[in-house]
Design goal:
The chain has helices at residues 70-77, 100-110, 126-131, 141-154, 170-182, 200-217, 228-231; strands spanning 28-39, 42-54, 59-63, 85-90, 93-94, 111-114, 188-192, 220-224, 236-241, 244-250. The protein is an alpha/beta fold. The protein has a single domain (24-250), classed as P-loop containing nucleotide triphosphate hydrolases (Rossmann fold), CATH 3.40.50. The strands form two sheets. A six-stranded mixed sheet has the order 6-7-8-3-9-10. A four-stranded antiparallel sheet has the order 2-1-4-5, with helices on one face. α5 packs parallel to α6. The longest helix has 18 residues, at 200-217. The protein is globular.
Length: 252
């Protein structure tokens, strides 16, 4: 997770015929995705024939009114739920075809989650909370600790490692949650209303941090939000309304 170790962008390598190599595949490819839920005998459609891409290193905000299906779409992309039809491919893996066991393993290695209400374990310190996802890896105890320390330093919380959630502000707890989300160096970071429980100042700090993760570390981010001020920080904005996706274009 050392920024100096990240490969720098390079021009596409020419092929033997002198042609530029094909552009890399998107980080996320969603094709003809539909999802509905049943309420008794009723079938309630939530998403209808959704298709779009998220490029590697992109920061995309997904907006929509309550009940528009934006959290459902995020859950499908993150491998938490499965569609009725269509496919989702993330980092080259078609996750809609994976078994539940394989999907759980895939999520642990490739997706970092940030939730509105932090979801920290109250009896664990900040360091222990961040270290939790690493228990599913083959890292040694010392390596897990080193990774967690680095992740907390990236969110400027080195001085709060031994503190418990109740000893921290909402903004600090969300920064711990972000450190936990990035500690495994996931392919995709998904954030569900990450500023929804924060005051304006703390929300701005969290959005600044997410922006740095995207710009400086190249993290691909999908953020679900109803807050236009949060959406303004993304580089691409898409809008869901009654299960139909509209491209609102660039926000920067």
């Amino acid at each position: 997770m050392n920024q100096d170790d990240r490969p720098s962008p390079a021009d596409p390598a020419p092929t033997s015929a002198g042609q530029a190599a094909p552009a890399p595949a998107p980080m996320v490819e969603v094709r003809n995705l539909s999802k509905s839920y049943r309420r008794g005998a009723l079938r309630i459609p939530v998403l209808s024939d959704i298709s779009f891409d998220i490029e590697e290193g992109e920061f995309l905000a997904l907006m929509g009114p309550s009940g528009s299906g934006k959290s459902t779409l995020m859950n499908l992309i993150a491998g938490i739920d499965k569609p009725d039809s269509g496919t989702v491919r993330v980092a080259g893996v078609e996750i809609t075809s994976l078994s539940e066991t394989d999907l759980a393993l895939w999520r642990g290695h490739h997706v970092g989650f940030v939730f509105q209400f932090y979801n920290l374990i109250p009896v664990l310190t900040a360091l222990e909370n961040v270290e939790l996802p690493l228990h599913l890896t083959n890292l040694t105890r010392r390596q897990r600790r080193e990774h967690a320390v680095l992740a907390l330093s990236l969110v400027n919380l080195s001085h709060r490692m031994s503190h418990y959630p109740k000893q921290m502000s909402g903004g600090e707890q969300q920064r711990v949650a972000i450190a936990r989300a990035i500690v495994t160096d996931p392919s995709l970071l998904v954030a569900d209303e990450p500023t929804g429980d924060l005051d304006r100042v703390s929300a701005g700090e969290i959005l600044d941090l997410m922006g740095r993760l995207n710009r400086q570390w190249g993290k691909t981010i999908l953020m679900v939000t109803h807050d236009p001020r949060a959406a303004e920080r993304a580089r691409v904005l898409k809008h869901l309304d009654k299960g139909v996706l509209n491209d609102s274009g660039k926000t920067e």
